[in-house]
Specification:
Length: 266
């Protein structure tokens, strides 16, 4: 093998070629003077590691740089811990209120409202401070329609350029709020099962449920309960792609109210 160097060595100079993976340390070879020869692994480069390449904040679980023992003794710490999560159900509640602001451009008609409204009347929309009429008030006179499943509103006419569109959405809530599940109708399914809550018990004296389909409250269903879950059976299957919300409340002896926000325009 022939090597070419960039300059001519001086007379009697020693030219030494070191392999790239050689650490440059002279290894004794005289077995008569040594009890044993212990060899370690090779560096990835004869130059070793640059200080900037050494990461001090974390490393592999087992690595040649920080693991100074066989894999039977790995770096780390052992902690005796106990993780406890405590959940408290409030005795009274207020609805989640989501507020969003948009800027009109003269062409866009659909805008996000940020959350699922409890009912169609739980959405308030204003354009430059003027409250608009929603489809929940009068199906023949409205400025916009609401898509509950997509959490959007669509104006009949695009707001003018640079107008400010403000929306407020009230979610379902009420006293002793316990269960809220949402489903999507397929046009054929009539039975829907809610999640389990250990402190929820459905009976005629202490609990109540509230059901909406696409933001419209309905009572056209029957219910059964088992193992703290509610089974709601609709009289007729909700339409395909309809958005169904089922809320459960533990009613007290003095209050049977459920939060329902109705939009009011002047």
């Amino acid at each position: 093998m022939t090597f070419t160097i960039s300059e001519t060595p001086e007379e009697n100079a020693l030219v030494e070629f070191i392999p790239f993976d050689d650490d440059g340390v002279l290894t004794p070879t005289d077995d008569r003077t040594l009890d044993s020869i212990v060899k370690g692994g090779l560096f990835t480069s004869a130059l070793g590691h640059a200080p900037s390449d050494i990461v001090l904040e974390g490393d592999d679980f087992v690595s040649p740089d920080t693991s100074y023992a066989p894999e039977e003794t790995v770096p780390g710490q052992l902690f005796d811990t106990l993780d406890i999560k405590v959940y408290t159900s409030p005795e009274s509640g207020v609805p989640f209120i989501s507020e969003m602001n948009h800027r009109g451009n003269g062409s866009t008609t659909t805008f996000s409202i940020g959350d699922y409204p409890g009912t169609l009347g739980s959405v308030t929309v204003a354009v430059d401070g003027v409250v608009q009429k929603g489809s929940a008030l009068d199906s023949t006179v409205s400025d916009y329609s609401i898509n509950v499943a997509n959490k959007t509103i669509t104006f009949d006419t695009a707001p003018a350029n640079h107008t400010q569109i403000s929306t407020k959405v009230f979610a379902i809530s009420g006293e002793n709020y316990r269960v809220l599940n949402s489903f999507t109708g397929d046009g054929s399914t009539t039975t829907f099962l809610t999640s389990t809550r250990g402190e929820f018990n459905l009976d005629s004296t202490s609990s109540d449920i509230y059901v909406t389909v696409d933001g419209v409250p309905t009572t056209a269903y029957s219910t059964t309960t088992s193992a703290n879950t509610i089974t709601v059976v609709f009289d007729s299957a909700p339409e395909a792609s309809s958005y169904i919300q089922i809320a459960g409340f533990n009613k007290s002896a003095t209050s049977t109210e459920v939060m329902q926000v109705s939009e009011m325009n002047q």
